[in-house]
Design goal:
Helix content: 25-40%
Strand content: 15-25%
Distance between the termini: 62 Å
Strand order of the largest sheet: 11-14-15-16-17-18
Shape: globular
Number of strands: 18
CATH architecture of the largest domain: Alpha-Beta Barrel
Low-confidence stretches: none
Largest sheet: 6 strands, parallel
């Protein structure tokens, strides 16, 4: 039997928060390989429930009952190019001691190690994780995939991994690993049918806590700042009744009561997914809480949809509005308008949501975006009954806004991914000083009227 070890690496950054983070792609792969007879295990360096946290941290960070919370962290030396930033730089997750202990007690040894990656500017955590894997499991091939490899393939060659796999599809990964291990795979999920995949292997965790759900792949919109089209060219979605089956599975078998939706396009064409899904969950008497940390689409919100969300237990709702400036709305993709925003807020209020419940993301630090535009957007959202949430713009290679970002940034973001960190506001207008940004954050956080 071939043995695979899946690894979620550390995060190195100035700030990181666990908004229901789980390595969903890794867990989907693990489940597919297990179906094909492989022995699969996972080490999640960001697992907030790992027992080593209580041993290695005097005061483990608090966790919200919903599954989100602060991650344990250790202060580390900042990369030289970020030494000018007056903030503490940290390794987030379990300690190196804990990871080495896990690797030294892994028996029998795996035949292959698969490491994922997320933000491009988190790559130092990926590189450090791979170094430790090399030291503790010498001679075992390491495969690196995920967003960092997809967006920065040349830079990722320095990671220390033996094999790099880019792109957001699962089938290329299955094909590559099958070749590396010379292993037969009797089961392959359909590329076109997302419901042909087995449920992600959350059972590999001793404590599940919460489960993220993915109902679609890709997005019908082509927003200039978003990387979704780079990861998945097509927009495919699941059968709402199969999604209900998955939620019920974890609800009944593992007692999960908190679920997060990872896809931005959950609300698209509501009659074909979100509405029948929520009706079915209510029919099955599944009493749980749902959380949407990503920006849902405002345009699709109706009175019926909002009512079903409230009755079904949608507790954390976040919407992508980005700006109240009509011109920038059109230039960045045209996914929403001010009229969409006003109508959606009205529907949500009618359903019983309060202003504090309705989180609305606003982008800050876009190329050519003035601080006055950001302030006007904050005030517009506040005055019309929702809670503004500032989202600092992080440039992503390959997106429609990338070349403009490279030209406008005061950092060489095309050569060093660390400068793509949104903490730096790398593409901000010259008028958006640190003091002005602090004022905007303070305004956004003020209690709502």
């Amino acid at each position: 039997m071939k043995r695979l070890l899946f690894v979620q690496p550390w995060i190195h950054d100035f700030a990181a928060y666990d908004f229901w983070i789980r390595p969903l792609g890794l867990l989907q792969l693990a489940s597919i390989f297990r179906t094909n007879g492989f022995d699969v295990r996972i080490i999640d360096c960001l697992d907030p429930y790992h027992p080593s946290i209580a041993e290695d941290f005097r005061t483990p960070p608090p966790r919200h009952r919903s599954g989100r919370g602060k991650l344990p962290r250790q202060t580390i030396v900042k990369p030289d190019c970020l030494d000018f930033v007056p903030r503490r730089y940290s390794r987030y997750g379990i300690t190196p001691r804990a990871l080495r202990t896990l690797l030294r007690t892994t028996h029998p040894k795996p035949d292959l190690i698969l490491v994922t990656s997320m933000m491009t500017y988190w790559y130092p955590g990926v590189w450090e994780t791979i170094r430790v894997l090399r030291e503790e499991l010498a001679g075992i091939p390491i495969v690196l995939g995920g967003n960092y490899v997809t967006f920065c393939p040349d830079h990722a060659k320095g990671s220390g991994a033996d094999i790099l796999i880019s792109g957001g599809g699962i089938l290329p990964v299955l094909e590559k690993i099958g070749q590396v291990l010379a292993a037969d795979r009797s089961f392959l999920p359909s590329h076109d049918d997302l419901d042909s995949r087995p449920y992600p292997a959350f059972d590999l965790y001793p404590i599940v806590g919460h489960v993220p759900i993915l109902t679609s792949r890709g997005c019908p919109f082509r927003c200039s700042y978003c990387a979704a089209p780079l990861l998945h060219e097509r927009f495919d979605r699941r059968d709402p009744f199969k999604v209900a089956d998955e939620i019920e599975h974890w609800y009944r078998t593992r007692g999960v009561r908190h679920f997060s939706f990872y896809d931005d396009a959950l609300m698209i064409r509501p009659d074909t997914l979100i509405i029948p899904l929520l009706r079915e969950l209510l029919r099955r008497s599944i009493t749980c809480s749902f959380h949407c940390p990503n920006g849902l689409h405002l345009r699709e919100v109706t009175d019926e949809c909002a009512s079903l969300m409230k009755r079904s237990g949608f507790e954390t709702i976040r919407f992508g509005f980005e700006t109240s400036d009509a011109l920038r709305q059109r230039l960045t993709g045209g996914k929403t308008t001010n009229d969409d925003f006003l109508r959606a807020v009205g529907c949500l209020k009618n359903a019983g949501y309060h202003s504090e419940d309705i989180g609305v993301y606003l982008l800050c630090g876009l190329p050519g975006q003035s601080p006055e535009e950001v302030e006007e957007s904050i005030r517009y959202v506040r005055e019309n009954g929702a809670r503004p949430l500032l989202a600092e713009y992080s440039p992503i290679p390959g997106t429609a806004l990338w070349e403009t970002s490279v030209k406008s940034s005061r950092f060489p973001i095309d050569r060093e991914p660390l400068f793509q960190n949104n903490t730096l506001l790398p593409c901000r207008d010259a008028c958006l000083t640190d003091e002005r940004f602090a004022e905007l954050k303070k305004l956004a956080r003020q209690p709502l009227p």
